[in-house]
Write a structure and sequence with these properties.
Blueprint: H1 4-15, H2 21-28, H3 32-44, E1 64-71, H4 77-86, E2 90-95, E3 102-108, H5 111-121, E4 126-131
Antiparallel strand pairs: 1-3, 1-4, 2-3
Helix pairs in contact: 2-3
Length: 142
């Protein structure tokens, strides 16, 4: 279980994973060692699993976000996982229930790039694609 202080730690680390322990401690009215101990406990218990950089996709030439639903037979799932691991376009995917088997989030630099990517993805099944016009990402966990 986590308490209110742990929730605040998670929210703060979610916003800035590189925050110094002394600054985190100050934000939470804790000592730096107490804050560090709590973070270590959250890591040890598998609540914090990793830290990562958030990339501005537009600045690396992948300015168009898309969601692709794929109706795919279960027998192709392992092949798709391998394809996804090698694809620079795919940022995440979910194996889901419902009409489609997969929901894929990908980034491309043009509609031509999207068309070429879809040709590859359609080897796994029928697709339905949504181009993101605007996104509003919530930074807060709680």
């Amino acid at each position: 279980m986590i308490d209110e202080i742990d929730e605040k730690i998670l929210e703060r680390l979610n916003y800035d994973g590189r925050i110094k322990m002394k600054d985190l401690a100050k934000d939470l009215n804790l000592s730096a060692p107490a804050a560090a101990d709590r973070v270590k406990r959250l890591e040890k218990n598998g609540i914090i699993t990793s830290y990562k950089a958030v990339i501005d996709r537009e600045k690396i030439g992948q300015s168009i976000a898309v969601f692709i639903n794929i109706d795919m037979p279960a027998s192709k799932y392992e092949q798709f996982k391998e394809f996804a691991s090698k694809s620079s376009e795919i940022s995440e995917f979910y194996y889901v229930t419902g009409q489609y088997s997969l929901v894929v989030k990908a980034f491309v630099n043009s509609t031509t790039h999207l068309a070429k990517f879809l040709e590859k993805a359609q080897k796994f099944g029928t697709t339905e694609t949504f181009v993101v016009m605007y996104s509003n990402i919530k930074d807060s966990l709680f």
